[in-house]
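Re: the pair you flagged

First of the two:
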Amino acid sequence: MSVATERLAAAPPVVLARSALGGQDGIWIAGGAVRDAALGRDVVDLDLAVAGDPAPVAKAIARAGAGHSFELSAEFATWRVVAADHDWQIDVTALRGETIEADLGERDFTIGAVAVPLDGDDPLDPFDGLADLERGLLRTVSERSFAADPLRLLRAARFAAGLELEVEPATAALARAEAPRAGEPAGERQLVELRKLIGGPDPLHGIQLLDELGLTAVVLPELEGLRGVEQGPNHHLDVYGHTMAVLAHTLEIERDLDRFGGERGEELRALLDEPLADEMSRGTALRFGALLHDIGKPATRSERDGFVTFVGHDRDGVEIVGTLCGRLRASRVLTRHLQDLTLHHLRLGFMVHEAPLPLRRVHEYLRATDPVGADVTLLTIADRLSARGSGPFATEEAIEAHLRLARQMLADALDWRRQGPPQPLLRGDELAAELGLAEGPELGELLAELEAAQYASEVRSREEALAHARALRG
């Protein structure tokens, strides 16, 4: 038994499946689990290929592992079993073809076209996938691979970047030829691949591979449209190059949150690790935000007497992000999060010259950017670090001033997330009764003003708040 086979046999989901299925024939471990074991990685998710109906197999595993089973795809005859604590996941799929050999011949890449019988015999590797792994190559099983499922085009970039593989030349040529079809799969399927690529270990290489395979213009035309859009003197790169630099600096910030967040580094790490939506963490969403923050610049570029502006690109970007997310069928939560990052990414930069900020200005920023205050502040750091031109906002002094303000604002934003805005000294109905007001815009404006005054410690009691409100009304 090889080291990889031993590692596979010891993986908890494999142990569970063998225990639950009692040595049944016609069941194979296939795809990613075999690949991960061969690479020396932990096997957490398991794919089983079965001859026959996958439902009873999935249900048997769920019973044995106290998990939950459900039909994942009727079209592809796939069931999923998930642990109660989500520590493992097992997909069970009917064979594509009459035999396991036929099934492997329908898979995407040779590194995933390897199967091991569940009872533990030697691997079945008809396309030399294990050898390709050793050579560091990503190669399609057949010339039909991308035509059979164009989503595999995105997977090629994701696998190559995530597993540190080189796309085999013939596979790269085939991908470029089929690239116009990359937008055909359902938007939510494209989003899954983009999430895994951008949230993976090397998103910059992944995006570079999207470019090399001709996929960016098809799947993310808004990003492709940033190429060649020249900027003003504060920038040394065009908008596309700047965007890639912002993503690179976002990754740098992730790796060194103590440097950029000061004593709140651990809290920021916990924030970025939080699940957000669409199986995406806030950290992965921040990477997406880095890619999309300047998406409105091409439509707003203006030049007069050699001076370049992008007035309103934050607001225009919100609409463009909405269109992009709609195409990818992203959830409302993710869409709004990315739109908020785009809308507010300039706000802190406009406040740097006012530092140290009065508490009212801090409150204004936190209220306006809620609930992405900390996230977008991190984005502004990456944005500022990526502006290295000759203009006044690109000097070392200007950049350091921004970093100082951002560090303080991160602390305030984390406090705001934990504590929320100040508990009102007066409820709306109480204020309305005291002042003889009906519900409406004036009451809302007074309540907002009282919150700001309370945050700034200008009012500290119910009586002071009421007196302040009366004074405002004259």
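Second of the two:
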Amino acid sequence: MHSCERCHKTATVHMTEVSNGKKVEVHLCDRCAQEAGYVQQSHVPINELLNQFLKAHAQVSDTQTLRCADCGMTWQEFKDTGLLGCAKDYELFLNQLQGVIERAQQGADHHTGKTPGKPSAQPDDAVKLRKAEITRLKKELARAVEGESYELAAKLRDQLRALETT
């Protein structure tokens, strides 16, 4: 443990200089090192630096946060609750909602509605089932091709053609 060469407090700055081939060691406390020009800024604790960074970052993100003028809803509040505050939120958060809707609707970006059941819905049900099977086979075919499972892809292609022709 070295003491400061000027004030004899505990030295926190330790430097080794080579001048004219001679090795010279300098031991100074923070204050004396600043006065001598060895240290530009005093030591700042890491937690203080982190707090300053977080405060600055929080202020930047607060100014960029969209907030509904009618209900006060923010995108973060929607993410936390899963509920929008009013009808205007759909327009305000359109860009963010687009991805959420597509993920929830398995790729669809709009609601097609639901047809009420009919007493003679047997033919419609068969058509819907066939369309659903075609959609499923197309997705499975894409995965097989992507995974380079060409034999499986050929079988799926044949099943798909058979369904589409009937």
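Residues 59-63 have pLDDT under 50 and may be disordered.

-B.
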